[in-house]
Amino acid sequence: MQKNIIFGIRDQSITEETKNYIIEKLKKIESLTKGVENITVNIFQTKRHINDFKDLQLEILIKLPKVFVKVEGKGHNVNVIFDSVMPVLVKRLKRYAQNFETRWSKNIGWKEKELKKSMIVDDEPTDTFYEPHIKRKLLTDKPPMHPAEAVERMELLGHASYLFKNIKTNNYAMIYKREKGGYGLVEPKNDN
Question: Which residues contact 135 (CB under 8 A, 6 or more apart)?
Fold first, then answer.
């Protein structure tokens, strides 16, 4: 597994001892990373607005067949941050492993009933005048997928939303986590 671990270190230097610590901990979960294409460990500094105090941020991105698994954490010490994100990483890898046979390996179609339970329309209006600063742009050419598969990919990445092309309607749609639980689906209305 060691040959598949890529360290991306920006604005920070880490010791060989820290690298070996991370490698040894990742070796312990090797049974959950069968078929791994690569593991990227990114470590960089982030700046807080209060007194320009700098924190470290650690991201672990694991490329598995047909999916990415990502965890991230912030703090002052790389080893402490790594230890804090390991339980989340193990949980997401177990989720992937449990669903590998039924979802990822055979390309079996996703069942609509898996998502229907969590698709409740909420009529609460939201007015926002916030214009965000886009820091990262990702262009992708992924094949269309079922909304339930999009939920699974979103959960494995640890994101709150996920944009995908819906296989049923051939429209772009967004899945998101609702604050009150469950998931929401945003998709343009077909006027046909």
Answer: none
The answer to whether position 104 is within a domain reads no
Check the CA dihedral 84-89-92-94 and report its sign. negative
81: domain CATH number?
3.30.160.100
Amino acid letter, 173 = A
Q: pLDDT (tens digit, 9 = 90+) per residue, 37-73?
A: 889 999 888 876 666 667 888 999 988 877 888 999 9
Domain count, the chain: 2
Q: What is the pLDDT of residue 34?
A: 76
The range of the structural domain enclosing residue 137 comes to 113-186
pLDDT at 116 over 90: no
Residues 38 and 117 in one domain: no
Residue 119: other Cβ atoms inside 10 A: 14
Give the pTM: 0.59
In degrees rounded to 5, what are phi and psi of residue 144?
-60, 150
